[in-house]
Every structure is written in structure tokens, then in C-alpha cells.
Design goal:
The chain is of the alpha+beta class.
């Protein structure tokens, strides 16, 4: 095979593999993250998973966004929730205000009370006190263990405005959430090596 053709095939193949790694809901991005309250390692385009609306109602304003990564080797899901620029996340010390649930809101898999010891579930606020108020946040990072499979996932955080504390949640809240499919099959990796061998025969 002529070299320019090989190079063209290789470039196209690498672009295909890169696109397969992106979050394509209902699947997350496949990778890891560090739950430390610093969202710098997240890719806000590739890792995006769901919009979050006032009261989980898509007819109301978008107030935050949820991002996902999944590590197949440890069966760990990583979550980033970030507020929209004009929205303020809110910590209510008297209530559970930030959490992720699977299939039903009473099946919470991580909350702001989970702590952060490096063993999922872990939780850290993002930007707590960024405006001088320790009850105001820009979002949160979290992790929890979950096996591959098909689920519904619910993201939740409180927001505050002139009318007081409110809910920002994924669509379907409070009863359900967006579909989540975790697939750790090795088909892509196996086919990748096969294609590379064909290119360089």
C-alpha cells in the first residue's frame, strides 16, 4: 500500500477512535478524574452528559450542567456538576442539597456528606465561597462505584436567587432521570489492533 494512502487511513482511524472516547449520552466518556474540587482536568465539551434545569423541568431555565467519566478497570463513575455563569450553587446546612441517584431519587449513591478519602463514594465542592459567601459554590465533583449496565441517573444541586433556595436537576426529576448506559466491551480495542495490522502489512 502506498504511504500516503496508509497515512490517510491511519488518520481517519485515529479520528474514529477519538470520537468513540467522547461522551455520547446515554454513554459517558471512558476515563478517570480526581475528586479534589478542581475541575481543571475535565473537558467541558467531550465529557458533557446532561443539562440541569430549575426543578428538573426542561421548560424552565438551565441552571447547571452534568459531566461524566467512567473507569472500567475500577467500575468507578466520576461526576462533575457546574453551575451556569449566572447561577449560584447553594449549600443548605439543614438539608441534603447535592447528590447523584441511580434509578430513583431515594437511591442516592453519593451526597455532599460522603466525604473524600480516595475510596468511592467521594465528594468535593467546586469553588466553595468563591464570592465570599461560604454557602455559595460553583458546583461539585463526586465519584461512586457502579457496574456496567443500563440505568437512569439523577443529578441534583440547590441554587439560590432572590426568591430563595431552589432545585437544579436533570430532566425527569424527581421520579427519574436521563438514561445511562455503561458498556466496557473490548470490541473497539480488539478491532483497533486488527485495523492497524492491516494498515501496516
Amino acid at each position: 500500500m502506498r504511504l500516503p494512502i496508509r497515512i490517510g487511513i491511519l488518520v481517519a482511524f485515529l479520528l474514529f477512535i477519538a470520537s468513540a472516547a467522547l461522551a455520547t449520552p446515554p454513554q459517558p466518556t471512558y476515563g478517570t478524574a480526581n475528586v479534589d474540587g478542581n475541575p481543571g482536568e475535565w473537558n467541558l465539551v467531550n465529557d458533557f452528559f446532561s443539562l440541569m434545569y430549575r426543578a428538573g423541568n426542561p421548560s424552565k431555565p438551565v441552571e447547571s450542567r452534568a459531566y461524566l467519566r467512567y473507569d472500567c478497570s475500577t467500575q468507578t463513575m466520576y461526576v462533575l456538576v457546574l453551575m451556569e455563569p449566572n447561577s449560584v450553587g447553594y449549600i443548605d446546612p439543614n438539608m441534603q442539597t447535592a447528590w447523584v441517584a441511580i434509578n430513583a431519587q431515594n437511591n442516592k449513591v453519593v451526597t455532599e456528606n460522603s466525604g473524600d478519602d480516595g475510596i468511592p463514594p467521594d465528594f468535593e465542592w467546586v469553588g466553595q465561597g468563591y464570592d465570599g459567601d461560604p454557602q455559595h459554590v460553583r458546583g461539585y465533583e463526586a465519584s461512586f462505584t457502579i457496574a456496567p449496565g443500563s440505568y437512569n441517573i439523577i443529578f441534583h444541586i440547590d441554587v439560590i436567587d432572590s426568591s430563595g433556595g431552589q432545585t437544579s436537576a436533570s430532566p425527569g426529576f424527581p421520579g427519574t432521570g436521563p438514561p445511562l448506559v455503561i458498556d466496557c466491551s473490548t470490541g473497539v480495542q480488539k478491532s483497533s489492533w486488527g485495523v492497524l495490522k492491516l494498515i501496516y502489512r
